[in-house]
Structure formats: structure tokens, C-alpha cells
Amino acid sequence: MNNTIINFLQNEMKWNKLNISSIEKIGGLSSENYKVSYNNNNYFVKICTHNYLHTDRKSELSIINKAIEINLAPHLYYFSTETGNMISSWINGTMPSLNDFSSTKFLHKLSVALNSFHNLKCQKYFNPFNHIRKRINLCNDLNLPLPKSIDTLLNHLNNLEVKLSKNPLIGLCHNDLNASNIILTEDNIYFVDYEYSSMGDVFFDLATISWFFNERSRKNLLELYFNECTEQHYEKLLDYLFVVKFYNATWSLLKSSDSSSDYDYLAGAKMIFNDLLDYNSIRNF
């Protein structure tokens, strides 16, 4: 068994090692995640390993508790506001598939969950434009290979910031709603990994979800979320998709500097940067 996680469970939770029947590592990009069986119950355990932009763990805990109150997050047993390490109940569910994301039934369930979460409040505000610029500065400090076109991309980002700041639709956003942070069960849908959650334009979440959608599915999502899909809605979704991809490209490039994963984060960053340059690929996917 993994000595690091066993020591954590013994020291922080006072668990008896003899009652731990299994520890299964289940991945994680910014953390080490485990499924742990203890006293015939299963738990999700997260051990945080990196923190590039000094995540506000107190805010994260507050938001998790708000999500628990509306049945969007698993029950929490332990959370450290110093490290972000946490233990929650294990949810027997699945990550949504491509078929799910093309299903109107699933998108309706997802839209209801999103609206419930977006109606919550917190004190922290998320500005993706500033985050992207901070990450670019970090990449420069670490001598990471930003694309030669970075000034062109930044110029377009700055123009979008002016455009999108005029009529923001503010709500409590998850800000990392890729499929791996959504758990689907027979009777519910859960969001996990709230470390980036804060107030912001809800289109950031909608764009993140629709990254790999075709035009029809994107418009279906907007119709279900807003009860209508206008040209303005769709244009704003595509504008935010550029922002979301830029945000993820800089994250992947930073992650390439110290990752222990087999995944090639540098290649992933290059792929997204190339996609950003081909802006039509976002608008006409």
C-alpha cells in the first residue's frame, strides 16, 4: 500500500491501518486521487501536489459546502484549508460519455444542475483574462516554450475582454467543468473539484462543457439552459470558447514543467495553441 496516503489517513483521520482493505489510485492532473476502502465503506481521497496560482482553499471549502446543500457535491468528511487535501464519500457513478453529451435528456439534467449552481453566491471573483496573463508571465519566468504567435493570441484575447465585459451574466461558476469533473448516477448528477470555483460569467462554464460539441449540441445546450438560443448567445459561447481554450493551453504548458504523468502536457499545449490560431475551428466545429 502507498505509505504516503496511509500516513495521511492515520495522522489526519485517525484511521486504523488494519481496517483499510484497499487503496486504488485513480489519476488526477493537479492532485493524486484515490479510492480507499475502509471499514467496508468507500471514500474518495485527494492529495494536492501543486498550486501554481495560490488557490483560496477557504473559499473552495465554502463553495463545496454550498454545493453539498443543493446535492451537487459528495458528502465531505475532511478538508484542509492549508493544503486542499480532502476526503469525501465515494459516488458510484460514471463520467459522461460522448453519447451522453449528445443526449437531450442528459443535457437537460446538466442544465438544471448548472442553473442551480450558478444561482449560488460567493465572495471570490474569477477573471480568466487576468489568469491567462499571469500564467503567460509564469511560463516566461520558467522559460517554457510559448508559441511565436503569443502576441497575436493575446491581442485577440484583449479585444474579447473588452467585448465580453459589457454584458456579463454573473453567477457562481465551477470554471473546470470538463467531463472528468462530472459524475453521472441513475438519479443525480454531481460536480467535483471546486478549487477554481468563483463568481464570473456563466458562459465560461457553458463553453468548457461544449468544447467538443458540434454546432447542434452547442445550440441545444443553450436552448435548455436559457429556454432559448439567440444569435447573441451562440456568438458569446464561441467567444468564450476561445478564452477557455487559451486558459487551458497555458495551464497545460505550465503543467509540462513538473508533471510526473505519462501524458505529454507540452504536446497538449501546442495542440490547443494551434487550434486557437485556427479560429474557424472553434466557430465551425
UniProtKB/TrEMBL annotation:
<protein>
    <submittedName>
        <fullName>Choline/ethanolamine kinase family protein</fullName>
    </submittedName>
</protein>
<dbReference type="GO" id="GO:0006646">
    <property type="term" value="P:phosphatidylethanolamine biosynthetic process"/>
</dbReference>
<dbReference type="GO" id="GO:0005737">
    <property type="term" value="C:cytoplasm"/>
</dbReference>
<dbReference type="InterPro" id="IPR011009">
    <property type="entry name" value="Kinase-like_dom_sf"/>
</dbReference>
<dbReference type="GO" id="GO:0004305">
    <property type="term" value="F:ethanolamine kinase activity"/>
</dbReference>
<dbReference type="Pfam" id="PF01633">
    <property type="entry name" value="Choline_kinase"/>
</dbReference>
<keyword id="KW-0418">Kinase</keyword>
<keyword id="KW-0808">Transferase</keyword>
